[in-house]
């Protein structure tokens, strides 16, 4: 049921609450390469199950590391990050005694994952079509996520998929000053609100808004994963000051298609390849 939104909206305490590294496990990649080498396969193409490889939460560096980085820029690459990694079997400490070489990197710390983030479903949402392995590099792509918990609280995320190592940013101290909003009663939006008008005819936009206001079961289809969240979020912005109070899942992976069988009202999105399966 749609109801009026709270007029007082405030920014979260931080711009980045969680940074996760996801991908295919190294063991799966290594075994896949061995099979391809033995069989003489030149064009390697397969789908692997993604998993969470590492998680970083603020503060990304400590105060001591920040002071050392300011005094000596060469130590930026040696700062200790707070992370949560998958625990693996480690060799006994006696095996490392007396071995020459550089000191080992510090062990990751155990940290609490912010609420509203489900690490079990996060890999499926970041890679809805699975992890694709190919011999030729593909273009990098970006899509967006909206995670909703049982209380209706939404957590927004950005997924950047890279098919080659790329230096994107440094996790160091950064101060950002946001100017005051001209209209404090209006929500904060960073969307191209004209995007639905580029994807649908005006009469279709009105028809979709009518279905949303009458609380119908709605599924968006697109061949571009990035468009699903952007378009659905635009329609959510069109409703202001009303809010959609039913299940809201802009991206459904292959393993989540049974969500559309829910008997209640919902607004979801999935890839165009599943149109025939969902329409049944």
TrEMBL record:
Pfam families in the record: DENN, uDENN
Presence of the UniProt keyword Amino-acid biosynthesis in the record: no
* Alphabetically ordered keywords of this record: Guanine-nucleotide releasing factor
Does the keyword Transferase belong to this entry? no
Q: What does the record give under GO molecular function?
A: guanyl-nucleotide exchange factor activity
**Superkingdom of this entry's organism?**
Eukaryota
Write out the biased-composition intervals (Basic residues): 80-90
What are the annotated GO cellular component locations?
cytoplasm
For region Disordered, the annotated ranges are 80-110
Domain (UDENN) spans: 1-280
Q: Which InterPro entries match?
A: cDENN_dom (IPR001194), DENN_C (IPR043153), DENN_Domain_GEFs (IPR051696), Tripartite_DENN (IPR037516), uDENN_dom (IPR005113)
* Name the record gives this protein: DENN domain containing 3
Instruction: Tell me which species this is from.
Output: Homo sapiens (Human)
Top-level taxonomy: Eukaryota, Metazoa, Chordata, Craniata, Vertebrata
């Amino acid at each position: 049921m749609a109801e009026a939104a709270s007029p007082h909206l405030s920014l979260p305490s931080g711009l980045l609450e969680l940074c996760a590294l996801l991908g295919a496990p190294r063991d799966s990649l290594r075994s896949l390469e061995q099979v391809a080498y033995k069989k003489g396969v030149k064009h390697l193409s397969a789908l692997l199950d993604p998993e969470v490889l590492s998680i970083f939460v603020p503060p990304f560096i400590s105060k001591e590391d920040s002071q050392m980085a300011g005094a000596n820029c060469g130590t930026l690459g040696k700062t200790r990050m707070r992370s949560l990694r998958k625990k693996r079997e480690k060799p006994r400490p006696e095996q490392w005694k007396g071995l020459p070489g550089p000191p080992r990197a510090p062990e990751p710390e155990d940290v609490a994952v912010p609420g509203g983030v489900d690490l079990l479903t996060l890999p499926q949402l970041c890679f809805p079509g699975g992890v694709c392995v190919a011999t030729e590099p593909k273009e990098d792509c970006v899509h967006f996520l909206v995670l909703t918990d049982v209380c209706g609280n939404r957590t927004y995320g950005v997924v950047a998929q890279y098919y080659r190592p790329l230096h994107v940013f440094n996790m160091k101290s950064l101060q950002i000053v946001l100017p005051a909003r001209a209209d404090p009663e209006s929500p904060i939006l960073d969307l191209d609100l004209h995007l639905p008008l580029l994807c649908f005819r005006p009469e279709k936009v009105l028809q979709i808004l009518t279905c949303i206001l009458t609380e119908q079961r709605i599924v968006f289809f697109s061949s571009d994963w990035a468009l699903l969240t952007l378009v659905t979020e635009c329609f959510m912005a069109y409703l202001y000051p009303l809010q959609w109070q039913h299940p809201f899942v802009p991206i459904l992976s292959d393993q989540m298609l049974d969500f559309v069988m829910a008997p209640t009202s919902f607004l979801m999105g999935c890839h165009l390849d599943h149109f025939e399966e969902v329409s049944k």
